[in-house]
């Protein structure tokens, strides 16, 4: 190995995130297009799942900026952009304690501002501690914008009407506001004072290319600044992460990987994370895409002897079909390190999987990365997880959910991200009423579950509310005794609150006098009577008119202490003014016998 290669800095890995349709793919295409247009022969290495923008291309694109802002001299060999945008891919760019991506571009449609997946992307970037730049995209859609294709935004901005710039700045302020709420200080890139503390917002158009020079210059500058402390040279055995497991015609089982450190060679022994256990195998071939311009190329891939970080490469080796996306891959340089590395890979995979007896949801995902992200999101929302595993939903998962459902109805569910539900699992789930949420967008999956959860909680609240005895005050109308006992039937006027069949009654002294059996209004049975109504009620229990109760007497609903407590706390808003008033009268009567009536002493009301 030459001295020079030993000291070579590696390219920072850049990922693009943001809400759907905000322009991530268009931006990546633009950046790749820039590279293709500006490239010099022999300088571009093709990558699997990633595109390299060499530093000479960055220099060429950012050349016009030299006169406008201080640009840094590039020491890095370029930037490696992950080709597929979105945080599902990003979540797989994982390594222990962080991300494989060194930097990220957060794309925000300047017209639409923050959207659900934007928040989610920022949350993931925060969780994984990845520095990022905001591309405020689609400036060309600002009313009145005059496009200046591929120009620096600083130049294009000078050619706009002041009202257009004002509009743009307003939109940027909104983005700054949202970022501030999430704990990030930010500003328009040309107003930033401290790049290590503030996040730069670059207005761009992925369509016209305006602002792309600044975006690339800032990325390169940021990369150099952030990576300076931990300057990353290419050396030693490779470390990488599995992005995708694929059956490739003519090659068998392969994995697409991003190598973020070191060198990997054909014939190397590697350890790759698998669902059950680490896979130890030998690299049969390293494949990179055939350059696009090679028209006569018959194959899609070309074999190479070795690849060095940072790079996207397809690895061909036996046994890789059991590998799992998001899992680590390590080259074993010395035979004696094998066991240690195997142990480490095993540990790293197991750290993401969860298996407990907790009353929590069951989580299934297609990859280790999405599983990890999902679990983190659930945790941040205080939703407990019982089991988290990679793979399709099986009968066992449903059984686990059934066990949870017995004690905690709201968590007896399965959240399945981008995986199938096996037929026997589906059958059992349907039979047992286990809900399986399925989606291939993380935020949608969580949103669907939370919506259901809220509905369930609302339903339970309703049920609890239904069980509570409402405050009610009635007067027995003189001359309206229809039957004196067994049961007593009398005409009453509801003076306040509400009465319903089943409600116990008490006198003004607090003495219990049976409970309401039936209510009739003009000869028809009704289920409720409210203040102002005159109805006939029958009273169950040993109650005789003239002995226990009398014409003209006032009765109240006999509310248990625990109900009175809930009426004053959790369900305060459910009472009408006259019900509230009636409750106060009831409390006054009750406290004569029980001074703690309706108080929260010794009990918790906020369930
Ligand atoms: P993604 O889902 O974030 O990858 O978004 P796409 O890159 O697919 O873009 C979504 C839509 O927005 C497409 O119709 C693009 O043509 C359009 N688009 C993306 N960037 C721009 C831009 O800068 N200006 C305009 N006018 N349209 C854009």
Secondary-structure map:
Layout: H1 3-6, E1 13-18, H2 24-38, E2 50-54, H3 55-62, E3 78-82, H4 87-92, E4 94-95, E5 98-99, E6 103-109, H5 116-127, E7 132-137, H6 153-158, H7 162-181, E8 186-188, E9 199-203, H8 212-228, E10 239-248, E11 252-261, E12 263-265, E13 269-272, E14 279-282, E15 285-289, E16 301-304, E17 306-308, E18 311-316, E19 328-332, H9 338-350, E20 354-355, E21 361-365, H10 368-380, E22 385-390, H11 395-407, E23 413-417, H12 423-432, E24 435-439, H13 442-467, E25 472-483, E26 488-499, E27 504-507, E28 512-521, E29 524-526, E30 529-530, E31 534-540, E32 554-557, H14 561-568, H15 577-591
Helix pairs in contact: 3-8, 11-12
This protein binds guanosine-5'-diphosphate.
Function: Function in general translation initiation by promoting the binding of the formylmethionine-tRNA to ribosomes. Seems to function along with eIF-2.
GO cellular component, one term: cytoplasm
Keywords: GTP-binding, Initiation factor, Nucleotide-binding, Protein biosynthesis
Notes on the protein architecture:
It is a single chain. The protein is α+β, with helices and mostly antiparallel strands. 31% of the residues lie in helices and 28% in strands. The strands form six sheets. The protein has an eight-stranded antiparallel β-sheet with strand order 14-13-19-10-11-18-15-16, covered by helices on one side. Strands 2-3-1-6-7-9-8 form a seven-stranded mixed β-sheet, sandwiched between helices. The protein has a six-stranded antiparallel barrel with strand order 25-26-31-28-27-32. Strand 21, helix 10 (368-380) and strand 22 (385-390) form a beta-alpha-beta unit. Helix 3 crosses helix 8 (212-228). The longest helix is centred in the C-terminal third of the chain and has 26 residues, at 442-467. The relative contact order is 0.08.
């Amino acid at each position: 190995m030459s001295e020079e290669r030993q000291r070579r800095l590696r390219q920072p890995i850049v990922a693009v995130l943001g809400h759907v349709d905000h322009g991530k793919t268009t931006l990546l295409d633009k950046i790749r297009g820039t590279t293709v247009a500006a490239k010099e022969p022999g300088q571009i290495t093709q990558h699997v799942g990633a595109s390299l923008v060499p530093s000479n291309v960055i220099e060429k694109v950012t050349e016009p900026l030299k006169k406008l802002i201080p640009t840094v001299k590039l020491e890095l060999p370029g930037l490696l952009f992950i080709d597929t945008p979105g945080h599902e891919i990003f979540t797989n760019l994982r390594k222990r304690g962080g991300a494989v991506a060194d930097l990220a571009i957060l794309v925000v449609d300047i017209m639409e501002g923050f959207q659900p997946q934007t928040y989610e992307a920022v949350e993931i970037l925060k969780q994984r501690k990845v520095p990022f730049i905001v591309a405020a995209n689609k400036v060309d859609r600002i009313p009145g914008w005059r496009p200046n294709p591929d120009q620096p935004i600083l130049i294009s901005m000078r050619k706009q009407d002041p009202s257009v710039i004002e509009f743009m700045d307003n939109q940027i302020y909104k983005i700054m506001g949202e970022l501030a709420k999430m704990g990030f200080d930010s500003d328009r890139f040309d107003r930033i004072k401290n790049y290590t503390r503030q996040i730069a917002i670059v207005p761009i158009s992925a369509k016209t290319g305006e602002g792309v020079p600044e975006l690339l210059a800032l990325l390169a500058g940021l990369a150099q600044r952030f990576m300076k402390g931990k300057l990353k040279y290419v050396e030693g055995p490779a470390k990488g992460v599995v992005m995708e497991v694929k059956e490739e015609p003519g090659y068998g089982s392969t994995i697409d990987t991003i190598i973020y450190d070191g060198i990997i060679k054909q014939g190397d022994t590697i350890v790759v994370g698998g669902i059950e256990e680490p896979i130890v195998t030998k690299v049969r071939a390293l494949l990179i895409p055939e350059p696009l311009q090679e028209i006569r190329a018959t194959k899609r891939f070309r074999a190479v002897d070795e690849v060095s970080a940072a790079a996207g490469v397809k690895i061909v080796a036996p046994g890789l079909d059991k590998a799992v996306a998001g899992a680590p891959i390590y080259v074993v340089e010395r035979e004696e390190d094998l066991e240690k590395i195997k142990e480490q890979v095993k540990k790293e995979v197991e750290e993401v999987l969860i298996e407990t007896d907790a009353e929590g949801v069951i989580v299934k995902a297609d990859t280790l990365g999405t599983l990890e992200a999902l679990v983190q999101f659930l945790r941040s929302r205080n939703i407990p997880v019982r089991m988290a595993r990679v793979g399709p939903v099986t009968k066992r998962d449903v059984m686990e959910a059934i066990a949870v459902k017995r004690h905690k109805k709201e968590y007896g569910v399965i959240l399945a991200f981008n995986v199938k539900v096996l037929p026997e699992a589906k059958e059992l789930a349907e039979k047992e009423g286990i809900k399986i949420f399925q989606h291939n967008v993380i935020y949608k999956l969580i949103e669907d579950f939370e919506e259901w959860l809220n509905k369930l909680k609302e339903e339970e609240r309703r049920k609890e509310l239904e069980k509570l005895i409402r405050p009610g005050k009635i007067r027995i109308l003189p001359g309206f005794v229809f039957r004196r006992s067994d049961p007593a039937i009398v005409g009453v006027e509801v003076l306040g609150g509400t009465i319903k069949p089943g409600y116990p009654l008490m006198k003004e002294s607090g003495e219990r006098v049976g409970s309401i059996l039936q209510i009739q209004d003009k000869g028809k049975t009704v289920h409720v009577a409210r203040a102002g109504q005159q109805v006939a009620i029958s009273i169950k229990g040993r109650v005789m008119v003239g002995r226990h109760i009398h014409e003209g007497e006032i009765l109240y609903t006999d509310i248990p202490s625990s109900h009175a407590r809930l009426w004053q706390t959790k369900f305060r808003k459910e009472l009408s003014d006259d019900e509230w008033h009636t409750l106060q009268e009831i409390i006054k009567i009750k406290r004569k016998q029980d001074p703690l009536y309706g108080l929260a002493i010794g009990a918790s009301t906020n369930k």
